[in-house]
Amino acid sequence: MANKLLEINGVSKIFRIGGMLRGKKLVAIDDVSLSIDADKPVILSVVGESGCGKSTLCKMVLRLHTPDMGDIILDGKSYKDKKSYNHKQFKLDVQPIFQNPYESFSARKVVDSYLFNTALRLGIAKNKEEATKLVDEALKSVGMSLAVVKGKYPTQFSGGELQRVSIARALITRPKLIIADEPVAAIDASMKMNIVNLFKELRDKYKISFIYITHDLSTAYYVSDYIATLYRGTLIEYGSAKDIMDEPAHPYTELLMNAVPRVGDKWKEDLVLPDMEDKEYSITYCKFAPRCPYATEECRKDRPELKEIAPGRKVACYHPLEKTK
């Protein structure tokens, strides 16, 4: 069995919306399992509509949320084992890239100060001279340089340029895993492919694995090695990017493929919970059954397990092969 860089084992996360008495329970992540091998860096895209649980899953991997059930294991160390948790080492191994680069930097601080702080506070550089070299190397790896960035404020950069600085900052620690949560959502369409191309280059050059959280399916298809589809907090399909996009086995994934034909197309980002959608989160049978044109009585009775239908290809559907015809 291959060594695992990351194992997400049956994790669930439950939130309460509203007050204690009349509030509603929302199972944002429902028994999700995924893994990334340690021996070969990959880009795993987690896709789905807003509210499907993508960002919640991302925050659990980043230790910003604690799973209510299940466990996450990084490099053989369980997140439940609090005694062995090394905060500094975790920051060296796992780095985030968030959606809006302007929210990652204060308008009152020069951008390069963030990169120097990362290098010095985490002990990657012993002094300012070493930090200068590391910062310049990181910026050059994303097509910039310290000479271009030094002394400038966030407002002096475009969204795409600032996101490159965010990526450079993440690279300073030489992480094993980067969590990119909607990293191109706030960037002009002309710059989207430059950023996702950069992910592929960094994967190959520095052997870094990525979890790419997105609802831009066309960039997911282009950049990903593997794709995992979430629906109402449940993992419903997993496989290679080519297999998933060219021949989806789940009717929901098929619906997504048909709805997003080109770069930049995406779903509405606001989480809205009308009655139908609200109820779907708590359904104990197939959550997509109320909307699925292929649903049978079996689908409305029990929830299908995520099963392997081909090597490396999994789907949670009672009749997956029928949907791909």
TrEMBL record:
Entry keyword Cell membrane: no
Domain ABC transporter residue range list: 6-257
Keyword Chloroplast: no
CDD domains with a match to the protein in the record: ABC_NikE_OppD_transporters
Keywords of the record: ATP-binding, Nucleotide-binding, Transport
GO MF terms, alphabetically ordered: ATP binding; ATP hydrolysis activity
InterPro entries reported in the protein's UniProt record: AAA+_ATPase (IPR003593), ABC_transporter-like_ATP-bd (IPR003439), ABC_transporter-like_CS (IPR017871), Oligopep_ABC_C (IPR013563), P-loop_NTPase (IPR027417)
GO terms for biological process, alphabetical: peptide transport
PROSITE patterns: ABC_TRANSPORTER_1 (PS00211), ABC_TRANSPORTER_2 (PS50893)
Protein name: ABC transporter ATP-binding protein
